[in-house]
Fold:
Amino acid sequence: MTRARQTGMQSLRRLLTGAAFALAVILPAGTAQAASPAAWKLCESGYPHAKKIAACSKIIDNSGESDADRAKAYLKRAWAHAYDNNLETAFADAGGAIKLAPTADNYSERARLMAYCGEVDRPIADYTAAIKLEDSPYRRTSRGDLYRQKGAPGLALADFKVAAAGYSKTLLEHPDYYFEYLNRSAAYRNIGEIDKAIADFDEYIKRKKETDYLIITDRGDLYLRKADFDHAIADYTTAIDKEPDAIRFLSKRALAYRLKGDFKRAMLDYDQMVKLNDNEFDTYIGRGLTYVALGEPERAVVDFTKSIDLFSEDATPFYDRAQAQRDSGHADVAIADYTAAIERNPRYAIAFNSRGRAYLQLHDTAHAMADFNEAIRLDGKFGAAFINRATMHQAVGRMDDALADFGRAIAADPANAAFRVARAQGYAARADYADAEKDFTAALKLDPIDAAAYVGRAAARLKLSAAAKGLDDATRAILIDKDLAAAYVVRADVYAALNQADKAGADRAIAERLRARRETDRRALEETWKHPRVKIRVSGTFPIIPPFLKRTFKFDSVIEIKDDAITFRSAGLSPYKMASGETLQEEFPGVCNGRKDSNKGTREVSAAVDKYLVTVDMHSRIDFKTGACRGRYNVYKETFLIDLSNGGCKFSYRQDRDLFGVGAFDNKVADQTCVVESLR
Structure:
């Protein structure tokens, strides 16, 4: 190569190198490429949230990304912040997405995000903005749900109606979109058009090639809501045939049977649920309520107690057990349970009202009135509480106050015939028979087969010198309930006013026979409630609940019942003999570090039998004030609950211990078999 050619090549190289350098210099500084698939994957589904947030941040800060993609990353990061409970940061990130791309979808996503965080007002505002940009049935339904949470049922109903119309429009335009029938069904359900909601479920099930038994169960819920119990039971049975051991379906069918009044079939389902899982809180509540409906409140108490043992923070089982205790005539015990329910839910208006009724049973009118007042304060439309307070006013002669409360009860529930009857009786009590007749008539329009209302109106008409009409009413009452003694008494008075002494005498004789028969039945029932003479043995090793603990507890206890006397024997202790309902007290020596101690503790033992339910309670405490264990204490409590119904013997047990104030624990045994034998 010649020198000239060599020099030319060097110059060309320098020129090319300089050109390349010049190109590199004139490119915009900071130019970035789109984020990698790995970064997007972490942003969309990364965990832990810190990794997700970091990946989304890289995308947000990358100027090479489109506004739409950065907005998407903002929303992904917002959800990560929400999962970490950083709500305001989440809201700000979703706002960043809206600033980059103010679309209806982005407003809806922020609304969904903040609704997930438990907010109402800001999600409503965002759905409103989204609807202004692009209305849709989904957004209307979502905003309607939020309005309902906010306590604005009118606004919620308006949105649900628009949503239903929107889904209808979609189905007209796209008849093959069969899944929209489910969406429209939900909208119809929300506006209370249950028949239309069921029809949409039917259409969806017909169009879907494979029957979804979960959808059929949802349809069963709609049938249950409209009190079509047979169809509801049929749908739940379809689901149970697919999953025989699914407690969630058995519980729905049990509820449907119970509401229908078929308590025996309900009991079969509840018993099956207990066999499948004896650790379900709700199952025992449902079965307990079924026992109540069957007139077995003592067995209901056993089940409500089991539900409390499983979850003692809920107010419901305490309330239900209180109701059963009150029905059994144990108002004092019921009051303790009502109080426990109120402690767990201080706004439990119905518990205040029921506790007031229990206080009335104990003739404690001051506490009863206080509870009725509190129930009304908590719920100003609580008709039953107004009735109870009115009855108390009436009992002490405050008739104006009583009638005012009767009126408030009727205003709260105008369709309640019993409230009209109560006020009518109030009018009659102060000899205002014309107003009494009007209220009895109004009650009979609401309930044409209310025998008591006919009796009341007959008596009022007799006082108004309308004996012929009174005779008709009394006779109607007897046709409805031939065993209603009061109806014969009133008709006898009417016959007497019509100078038909023979007929009056005949009716009075029938009334006396009915009263005598009722008294005989009452005494016979009392005879069946006599305490048994039995020996109950609880002996052996039994599993502790919950079952996953896989632990057992050993028993060796005997309870003897002879009429009203109960003897309780337990290993290591002297026998305790007491009357049913009695509490024994004794002192016992303390034990410190395995040796007897000079400190003394106290022990209380009580037992009671009611029909076929037996309870034994033992409670002891010792406080060490001297010696090596000074400053410590020992608390022990155990309870047996034994059910002797139907000739069997089942027991539940709970033990609570706090050893020296440094370690508390409990043991529970539920629904195990004991041995019972008769004593002479």
In short: The first helix runs from residue 3 to 26.
